[in-house]
Amino acid sequence: MSRPIEAENLTRTFGNLVAVNSINLTVEEGEVFGFLGPNGAGKSTAVRMLTTLLKPTGGAARVAGFDVASEASMVRKKIGVALQDAAIDPLMTGNELLRLQAVLHGISRHEGKQRCAELLERVGLTAAGDKRVGTYSGGMRRRLDLALSLVHQPKVLFLDEPTTGLDPTSRVALWEEVRTLNKEIGTTVFLTTQYLEEADQLAQRIAIIDNGRIVREGTPTKLKSDVGAPTLRVDVAESDFETAKQVMTKLGEERPARKGRIAIGLDGGTRAITSVLKSLEDQDIEVQHVELDEPSLDDVFADATGRRLEGGSDT
Amino acid sequence: MNIKYSIPQALQLSHRSILGMIRQPQAWAPTLFFPLLLAAVYAAQFSKAVNLPEFPYPDVTFLDFILPACVIQGVLFGSTNSATDLAGDIENSFMDRLLSSPVSRSSILIARLSSAFIYGLVQATILIAIFFAFGAELSGGVSSALALVFITSFLSMGVGSFLIAIALRTGSQEVVNSLFPIIFVFIFISSAFFPVELMDGWYGQIAEWNPLTWIIDWTRAITIEGFSWKAFLQASGIISLISLAGIATSIHQLKRRLAVAS
After folding, report:
1. Which residues span the domain enclosing A240?
2. CATH assignment at residue A273
3. Do A17 and A116 sit in the same domain of this protein?
4. What ipTM does the predicted assembly reach?
5. Cα B112–B116–B119 angle (5° rounding)?
6. Per-position pLDDT tens, chain A of length 315
7. Helix B105-133 vs helix B3-22: angle between axes, to the nearest 10 degrees?
8. In chain A, what residues touch B94 (CB-CB under 8 Å)?
């Protein structure tokens, strides 16, 4: 049986601009797959091709076993799509939109009514179901958007930046909903995001896209471990700085750090930290601050592209 | 196209379009108010125009004379609503939601055209009722009133189909709304508020060749002289041609828009 999503050399150009450059992807059944990248990296263009909204100019992709170009109508029956801007008609109620979506997917009136009620309950909008969407908060709109994409019980769910613009509480609530969907129903989820934490929290596997190309792919743990050892960061008094630096760089490879701070790559966990601190103490150096950071996805992104995804982080 | 699914889809999308219109009184209220305001002004200003020697209907009031034109004017103003809503769907990506679902593509167009027709029908009925309340008369009675409602609703759909094509082409509410003055000019350079017999020079010539003049004159014949199949079919025939051209343009623009998709 074919995988829920397979892309081979998938390409999209707009004139001279190559928005998506020959990407290869496979997403396994029941997986939450994160597609991480900055604005303009090509995430949405890739999603638009996979959801049949945009014709590829090169390569091929199959979604739910069907070719996105030649079997687009079959793909549309099998996928659920929640696009970046929560495209919801503000003049309609949540209930009306869900019923419309059910009819568009050929679901009978009776079944549609039942399913809409279930979905409203699932996303916590039963009480607001008969209110116009224009009165909903950003979080409520996103939850309704998610419910709309689930009306026909899709095999593959595409979520294009589902939490952009949401407050932290609504963001966490939506993550929880995606996790539940994936665990309870086994829906395969293709999630694009520019938030490292979101990808880290939700995705079992991640592809990082930059300038239209996939620059890294793997599980978050593997991607981070490939970057190298955790980073130990130490602050000392200015007068001790040079000596402390000499001591520490003998124990681990130097890493970039902000002014007044020394950072080294350090394997060996807490025992290794104790050893570094003891060496500094032996030199009579007083440590003002110490922290040990596991490599983050931002480190993975930086390692792959030479840039930080979330602006200049505190190195 | 699977009829089993596409008919309910078109009905449900039409229902949405009409609900959307009803829920935006700021969009439909002016299209009722302005024709009535203009009718009141013209009826007061030109009430004695019916006494002019070449006036084609000397035995009617000026209000009766402008009734069909005012209904047509109101309906034409309203015909922009369906296209504006469609452009709004494109702007706010609701169209993408539709296109990523298995909805029949023709249903999207049918829904907008039918909502333009239904909107025209409701608007024409309300305008005629208000004219009656102010003493206007239709010599053909119910059959003339029904013919007037049908012709104006059909025209709303026909002109609406061109505006829908422009909405599909541009995806911009602003562009669709900016066409409003063109409709205004078409109405004013026609026999809507004054008979072409009393016009002169280039203005009269343009008015004579304006298809809206023909539609208004045939409709006026129905409302003033009584219902006649000939006038009804002539008006409907011209509107059919306009509608066919508009729908063909809309289909072309929808296909063009869909061509970027799979």
Report:
1. 225-305
2. 3.30.70.980
3. yes
4. 0.83
5. 130
6. 579 999 999 999 999 999 999 999 999 999 999 999 888 899 999 999 999 999 999 999 999 999 999 999 999 999 999 987 767 889 999 999 999 999 999 898 899 999 999 999 988 899 999 999 999 998 899 889 989 999 998 999 999 988 887 888 888 888 888 898 888 888 999 999 988 888 888 999 999 999 999 999 999 989 988 887 888 999 999 999 999 999 999 888 888 788 888 989 887 767 788 889 999 999 999 999 998 888 888 888 888 887 777 654 444
7. 40
8. 87-89
Is B94's Cβ below 8 Å from some Cβ in A?
yes
Buried b (16+ CB within 10 A) or exposed e, A267-301: eeeeebbeebeeebeeeebeeeeeebeebbbbbbb
Quick check: A122 and A176 in contact, CB under 8 A?
no
pTM of the prediction?
Answer: 0.83
Answer yes or no: is A314 within a domain: no
- Answer yes or no: do A169 and A294 share one domain: no
Q: B261 and A76 in contact by Cβ < 8 A?
A: no
Query: Which CATH number covers residue A81?
Result: 3.40.50.300
Q: How far is B150 from chain A (nearest CA, A)?
A: 29
- Of A179, A151, A154, A176, the C-alpha closest to A166 is A176
Nearest to B100 among A51, A85, A91 (CB): A51
